[in-house]
Amino acid sequence: MVSDTLLITTRKAGPVMVPGRNLIRRLISLKVYAILCSMEIYMDCCCLNRPFDDQTQDKIRIESDTIMAILWKCFYGKWLLIGSDIVTYEIMKTPDLGKRNKVLNVYSIKKDDVSFSDEIQNRALELQKYGLKALDSLHFASAEYKNVSVLLTVDKDFVTSAKQIRSSLLIENPVTWYMKEIEYE
């Protein structure tokens, strides 16, 4: 049986107990497990913009509240927001500078970015055959490439078209998805 601590001697500190090989392996595997089990969420630009849209309609306000709840979980590290060059491109096209800055501020909590590539472009072109718009197909291809847990959008047509595509990627409206996720909390 291998010990979970080792006694090593250092010049300055003398004898020191350090984690043994088995304990180090367990700690590393727990860290890897925690990373692998983190929920990775990709939000398209309309999803990120929703909290800054006109809140007089119930549907928009409910979606906004849900998106903010999801973003809070990302901010506090429970889930990971994944970004992409495509999302950044779309945000930068927002004509209202005030709204653009608010969205960029929220978007800054992203933990990783999917860079645009030939592979993503080719997949997006293939996806457009299923009726996806150009930017929607790029979001889908980026999220699929990163193998995220879910792609969230408030675009009903995007969800409807994407559900016809054979892919392991889950695409949902944030309210529908969030209600399923918190059911067991």
Q: What descriptors fit this protein?
A:
185 residues, 17% strand, globular, alpha/beta, two-stranded antiparallel sheet, 5-stranded parallel beta sheet
Describe the structure.
With 185 residues, the protein is an alpha/beta fold. 53% of the residues lie in helices and 17% in strands. It contains nine helices and seven strands. The chain has a five-stranded parallel beta sheet. It has a two-stranded antiparallel sheet with strand order 1-2. Helix 8 links the parallel strand 6 and strand 7 (171-172). Helix 6 crosses helix 7. The two termini are 39 Å apart. Mean pLDDT is 86; it is low at 27-36.
Give a brief rundown of this model.
By secondary structure, the chain is α/β, with parallel strands linked by helices. It has helices at residues 21-37, 45-49, 58-75, 85-92, 97-107, 118-127, 134-146, 156-162, 174-182; strands at residues 5-10, 14-19, 39-43, 79-84, 112-114, 150-152, 171-172.
